[in-house]
């Protein structure tokens, strides 16, 4: 469970950075970039909060 | 901040309210940490809300791109070397907090005076962070953003937003901010990536295909921002000195003795390079590009972080501005509160940390309503270093010249006095004239940090020679 959440969290970070590189190389529009980064943010923080809540149980 | 979810003793020195470990004793071997803990902590801590201001202020000051690239590269290198070879070697030998170390040299009453100066300066710094956060929070309310001409609050809405942001930060800090410290640890890697993404997108928006084109666009941005002029108030040496000394209180000023006393080896000092080259290089350049892109696309030279971040990466950027301001203003207010509490407790022993921190938060909130502190951040940071860093000179010269690095003798020694007049004179003799020249004559603040540090250290040796001999 924790490993899966960690991977999803990393995907959130990927969605935060990679769209800017795609925008740099004209692969996506600025609107898509903003949307992807917003999704990345939601994913990263959601997973972090869930992991934080699960942590005492796994301890 | 480190990226672990649990606060560690290393973090505790910066933040945690409960874990005040080894405050009056050397950190024992079993509590010492490897260098890894420090890399993440410094990378996160220096990706702060104020980084969104500093880069754009370089553009407004007319700094050439070449001077930014080289000045920051070399200035940050000097900052890292100052940590590694000035602060950390003493920290890993003495293993005391700054306050306990200084108390042994200067006495507890002088340390309290230093604490007061420290606390007040922290409040104004936190005020600038609150202003930064408010510019992002105000976006959905259609708040009129302050401009660089506004030194006073520019609208009732701005005051309301600053008060709301400031009060939330003050209350959370007063309650003890373990939760915020945890949240900051979570947000830290994300914030660093958002800074990088902002820089990449802004660079693309500038549309430069070569260094020459980028330089040309940059110069045009300066000309636009300066209403047709192209006057630089900061050359290479100014940028170099600013990068070196903007954290002077932490490295040559020895505030980070409190952090690195937990390091196993002095080589942990290299971890500060993460903070310097992520926060004070990448983030400053990214923020500067954001303003240049805003000028190019919107013909708007107002360096307000919220809208700038919104222009390049949208909601993620806006949230990043709020989070970066919040997570860094919070510990700053907390530290100011501790300093005030220590001061107040000498007269009123029952003063609680809650009220001391809340008072610090209120002062910071009031300061945050005055955009002047944010616009004058470059000068303020230099003034902060000029006032606080010289005490590090006392510690440095005391350690290497008077005590010859004798750890055992230092640990066994008791303070000579509860208020050292030689240390006070050594501190004030260079700092008071420097303060006058900076504040009333308009001299560049960072130029005074090193001279004041050296003069204070040497004066301390001269003025305290007699008691030492006796």
UniProtKB/TrEMBL annotation, chain A:
Arranged from A to Z, the UniProt key words for this protein are: Membrane, Transmembrane, Transmembrane helix
Q: Which domain of life is it from?
A: Bacteria
Bilayer-spanning residue ranges: 7-29, 35-54
Protein known as: Uncharacterized protein
What is the native source organism of this protein?
Pelagicoccus mobilis
Automatic annotation (TrEMBL), chain B:
Task: Tell me yes or no: is Transmembrane helix among this UniProt entry's keywords.
Answer: yes
What are the record's GO terms for cellular component? plasma membrane
- Cross-referenced Gene3D superfamilies: Hydantoin permease
Where are the compositionally biased (Basic and acidic residues) regions?
13-27
- Residues annotated as region Disordered? 1-27
The UniProt keywords, alphabetically, are: Membrane, Transmembrane, Transmembrane helix
Q: Which GO terms describe its molecular function?
A: cytosine transmembrane transporter activity
TM segments? 109-136, 156-176, 183-203, 234-253, 274-292, 312-333, 354-375, 381-401, 421-439, 445-463
- Answer whether the UniProt record assigns the keyword Electron transport to this protein: no
Which InterPro entries does UniProt cross-reference here?
A: CodB
Protein name, entry field: Cytosine permease
Q: Which organism is it from?
A: Pelagicoccus mobilis
Lineage in the entry?
Answer: Bacteria, Pseudomonadati, Verrucomicrobiota, Opitutia, Puniceicoccales
């Amino acid at each position: 469970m924790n490993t899966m959440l960690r991977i999803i969290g990393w995907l959130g970070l990927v969605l935060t950075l990679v769209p800017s590189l795609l925008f740099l190389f004209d692969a996506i529009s600025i609107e898509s970039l903003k949307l992807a980064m917003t999704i990345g943010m939601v994913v990263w923080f959601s997973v972090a909060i869930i992991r934080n809540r699960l942590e005492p149980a796994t301890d | 901040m480190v990226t672990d979810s649990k606060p560690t003793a290393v973090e505790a020195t910066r933040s945690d309210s409960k874990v005040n470990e080894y405050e009056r004793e050397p950190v024992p071997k079993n509590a010492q940490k490897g260098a890894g803990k420090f890399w993440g902590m410094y990378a996160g801590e220096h990706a702060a809300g104020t980084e969104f201001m500093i880069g754009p202020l370089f553009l407004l000051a007319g700094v050439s791109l070449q001077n930014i690239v080289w000045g920051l590269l070399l200035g940050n290198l000097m900052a890292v070397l100052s940590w590694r070879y000035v602060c950390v070697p003493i920290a890993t030998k003495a293993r005391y907090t700054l306050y306990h170390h200084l108390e042994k040299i200067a006495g507890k009453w002088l340390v309290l005076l230093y604490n007061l100066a420290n606390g007040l300066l922290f409040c104004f710094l936190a005020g600038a962070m609150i202003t930064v956060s408010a510019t992002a929070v105000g976006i959905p309310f259609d708040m009129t953003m302050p401009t660089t001409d506004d030194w006073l609050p520019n609208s009732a809405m701005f005051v309301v937003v600053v008060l709301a942001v400031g009060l939330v930060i003050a209350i959370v800090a007063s309650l003890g901010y373990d939760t915020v410290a945890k949240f900051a640890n979570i947000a830290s890697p994300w914030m660093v990536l958002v800074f990088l993404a902002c820089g990449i997108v802004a660079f693309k928006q500038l549309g430069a295909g070569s260094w020459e084109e980028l330089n040309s666009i940059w110069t045009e941005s300066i000309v636009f921002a300066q209403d047709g002029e192209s006057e630089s108030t900061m050359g290479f040496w100014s940028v170099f000195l600013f990068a070196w000394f903007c954290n002077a209180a932490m490295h040559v000023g020895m505030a980070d003795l409190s952090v690195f006393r937990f390091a196993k080896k002095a080589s942990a000092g290299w971890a500060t390079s993460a903070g310097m080259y992520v926060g004070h290089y990448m983030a400053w350049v990214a923020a500067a590009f954001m303003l240049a892109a805003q000028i190019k696309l919107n013909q708007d030279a107002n360096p307000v972080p919220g809208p700038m971040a919104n222009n390049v990466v949208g909601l993620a950027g806006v949230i990043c501005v709020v989070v970066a301001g919040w997570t860094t203003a919070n510990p700053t207010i907390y530290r100011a509160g501790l300093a005030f509490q220590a001061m107040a407790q000498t007269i009123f022993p029952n003063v609680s940390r809650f009220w001391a921190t809340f008072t610090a938060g209120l002062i910071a909130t009031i300061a945050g309503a005055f955009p002047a502190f944010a616009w004058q951040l470059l000068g303020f940071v230099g003034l902060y270093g000029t006032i606080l860093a010289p005490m590090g000179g006392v510690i440095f010269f005391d350690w290497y010249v008077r005590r010859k690095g004798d750890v055992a003798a230092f640990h066994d020694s008791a303070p000579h006095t509860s208020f050292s007049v030689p240390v006070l004179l050594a501190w004030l003799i260079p700092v008071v004239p420097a303060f006058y020249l900076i504040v009333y004559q308009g001299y560049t603040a960072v130029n005074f940090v090193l001279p004041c540090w050296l003069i204070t250290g040497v004066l301390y040796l001269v003025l305290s020679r007699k008691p030492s001999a006796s």
